[in-house]
Amino acid sequence: MKELNYKKYVILLIAISAAIRSIMAIVLNLGGEEAYYWTFSLFPELGNFDQPPMVGWFIQLFTNNLSLRGEFFLRLSSIATGCANIWIIYIIGRRIKGESAGFYSALLYSFSFYLSLVAGLFILPEGPQTFFYLLSLYFLLEGLIPRDKNCAESRMLCRMALVLAGLFIGFATLSKFSSILLWLGVAVYAISNDRSLFKRTDLYLAAIVTLASLLPVILWNVNNDFLGVEYLAGTMKFSGGINLQAFLKGIFIPFLINNPVNLYIIYKSLIAHSRTPFISKDHLSLLLSLSLPVIVVSIVFSLVSESFIYATSLGIIPFIIIAGSWLSTEHIKTNKILNPKSLRVSLYLFAIVVIIALTHHYTGMLNYLFSFNKEGYSIGTNDFTLDRYGLKKLSYEFKRIRDIDIATGRISAHSYIIEFDYKKAALKDYYLARPNKTFVKTWGPLSKVRKYKWITAKQGGLKTGESVYYVHSSRDDNKGVEFGFNNFEKVEIAKVVYLKKFGKPVIRYTIYRYKNLVNDPLKAN
To answer: What radius of gyration, in Å, describes the C-alpha atoms of the chain?
Structure first.
């Protein structure tokens, strides 16, 4: 039987994946979360109120400190690390069971909605987190299960592997705090499989390196009254009882976004291994130790917080490597690349979902098929995809109104946009304010405006006598409009803008002028 050139196929897979994600990066507007993380690079800090700073640093690096503009360049860091991740998981699979295992691990990775799109396309902390997580996984494998117990092949790699793993765990934690759970997996492996690890000095040095890498976040919290620590503690609502809804999300969301067919393949691989082992006991123990504790802790903590829902997906990566190793044994039996049938179904499901999502984005077909816009609902209420739709057209309309208003003296050139939610503020900042040479300020509690609390302060805060714009979506509640009537001398509707798909309006934006802030912002807030 002719041996396939798996490396060539992996490179082809990376090229196809990069092309698809690049096209999507160009054609899709930013979402609210993405626009918010763009502000991490616009106003870089050692830390932030709600998330570590790594995602902002990556954006700065790949956009040359924001000199390269547009959605593609903002997402370039995620696309680049997404490509690197496919190669790294191939290397890990190859390390455990050969070239074919690496290839099938890379395939399963690419068919995961979470790993390919959430972590490999959008501007989210999951991008750098997954990249550093996989590097950590590789060096943990090298450090805990060396290829040669005497380190004859690479003594330096044996000595430095755990330290490098500690460094990358630190970087992953600087991307998203849930990455620290990798150390829990290491502890479980040491206790259950190799207690002599506790005698190794490089293990403790690796832990120290992880802690040292978190110094930026520690310094930020020291300088900001430990607001980040307070926020994290606040997400854990132990006093509020069990959050059954979050618990169910913690189970079903990872099931859906990691591709249900992939999880079925993982299940089949575990059954197959229990009958006929296809990887070594040490490798299986390490992968399970790095996986199961993360999954269990994430699901349990989702009982009291929604912050851990997506952390479960990290625990699925080691299972992908196990499944890839099993698929490599199945390939030997048939010599067909997409074998068994479930692997083909995984690919088809991934392709169909992506095609349907993009088609709906531009046509709104699901609204018509499932009658989302029912009588009594505001236009666009039930279609969350509209948050990414038509924002450039809205920006054009906003510019026309603002230019005329300034030219006719209806509003000052120093006017800005006001918002009350951090995601909406970031979207309007990116698409409306910055292109039109103005900015966004927010009003509201820290939990609602997050980093915009500091951004607003840097821009001088809110002052009585100012006039502002407020852009109200038909998907929003009326609190922003009520705020205008309650706190400004005069409220005017500048224009109503309808965005359409196939000639039918799908969302309405009302652009308001709020003139002369009369209430003291500090007292009213």
So the answer is: 25
Sign of the CA dihedral running 124, 128, 131, 135: negative
CB contact at 8 A, 238 and 300? no
7 backbone φψ class: left, alpha, beta (φ>0; ψ -120 to 50) = alpha
Q: Are 353 and 24 in contact (CB under 8 A)?
A: no
Token pair in block for residue 324: 């890839």
Distances (CA, A) of 473 to 3, 104, 291, 385, 461: 58, 45, 42, 13, 24
Long-range contacts (CB closer than 8 Å, 24 or more residues apart) made by 396-401: 397/495, 397/497, 397/509, 397/511, 398/432, 398/436, 398/469, 398/471, 398/511, 399/435, 399/436, 401/494, 401/495, 401/511
Q: Which of 415, 464, 409 is nearest to 440 (CA)?
A: 415
pLDDT in tens, the chain (525 residues): 456 789 999 999 999 999 999 999 999 999 999 999 999 999 999 988 889 999 999 999 999 999 999 999 999 999 999 999 999 999 999 999 999 999 999 999 999 999 999 999 999 999 999 999 999 999 999 999 887 666 655 556 677 899 999 999 999 999 999 899 999 999 999 999 989 899 999 999 999 999 999 999 999 999 888 888 777 776 666 545 566 776 777 778 888 899 999 999 999 999 999 999 999 999 999 999 999 998 888 888 777 766 667 778 889 999 999 999 999 988 766 666 666 788 999 999 999 999 998 998 888 777 765 554 555 457 777 777 888 888 999 999 999 999 999 999 999 999 999 999 999 999 999 999 999 999 999 999 988 999 999 999 999 899 999 999 999 999 998 999 999 999 999 999 999 999 988 888 889 999 999 999 998 666 655
Using the structure block, give the residue that is written with the tokens 């690349």.
Answer: 337
Question: For 176-280, where are the alpha helices, taking DSSP H only?
Answer: 181-193, 201-213, 215-223, 227-235, 244-257, 260-275
Closest alpha carbon to 142 in 155, 125, 124, 129 = 155
Compute the distance between CA of residue 171 and CA of residue 165 in angstroms, rounded to an integer. 10
Q: pTM surpassing 0.85?
A: yes
Neighbours of 423 (CB within 10 A): 18
Asked if 468 and 492 count as a contact pair (C-beta separation under 8 A), the reply is no
Pairing outcome for strands 440-442 and 416-419: parallel
CA atoms within 13 A on the CB side of 20: 19
